[in-house]
Specification:
single chain; 189 residues; alpha+beta; four-stranded antiparallel β-sheet; three-stranded antiparallel β-sheet; 9 strands; 21% strand; flat
């Protein structure tokens, strides 16, 4: 029974608060939010701005009849949207003498361009095998797609590369024609 009494008191208090909120919301006139504060104006009791010399300012009068009247048409020749920019200088006349680029004149004759270098070798060096009883080393390589590839010094790998030297931590390969010499470090992966 005590809990029923507490609930009734709580409900009554909530209804009183709700009634007060509704009364204040409906009784207060809707006003626009205050504008930005200015040090040149102070507000008086009627809500109008007061000028520094004590004269109250009022809203300017709008002449609605003047809005519907005809306006003079702009003159086409006098209107210029870019009137504040200076006129661009006239284009220089075309020259009759041949021009030489400054970069080639300073750098000398162009370097001879030969055939493009071969693409880099994309194999990974993953290990070294040594045959027991001989000092021959076998390099284990991977192209990342198929089974491992094996090659000995002076031999070929994948039909495209020649093994030049096999070290403990690196292998030196080149293309079969001798171009594109590249050292590949041991990755172990």
């Amino acid at each position: 029974m005590a809990t029923d009494r507490r609930q009734q008191i709580l409900l009554a208090a909530l209804l009183v608060v709700l009634a007060l909120v509704l009364y204040r919301a409906l009784a207060m006139p809707q006003t626009s939010p205050p504008g930005p504060a200015s040090s040149n104006r102070t507000a008086n009791r009627s809500g109008q701005a007061e000028k520094p010399d004590g004269v109250t300012a009022s809203a300017p009068q709008v002449h609605l009849g003047a809005l519907g009247s005809e306006r003079p048409a702009p003159v086409g020749a006098e209107r210029n949207l870019f009137r504040f920019k200076p006129k661009p200088p006239p284009a220089p006349p075309p020259s009759t003498q041949p021009s030489t680029p400054i970069a080639t004149a300073l750098s000398g004759p162009p370097a001879p361009t030969g055939p493009p270098p071969p693409p880099p070798i994309t194999l990974k060096f993953i290990g070294v095998l040594e045959q027991p009883g001989t000092k021959q080393k076998i390099g284990v390589l991977s192209d990342g797609q198929g089974p491992p590839l094996f090659g000995t010094e002076g031999g070929t790998v994948a039909g495209r590369y020649r093994v030049l030297r096999i070290g403990v931590e690196s292998i030196e390969l080149s293309y079969l024609d001798g171009r594109g010499r590249q050292t590949i470090r041991l990755t172990g992966g």
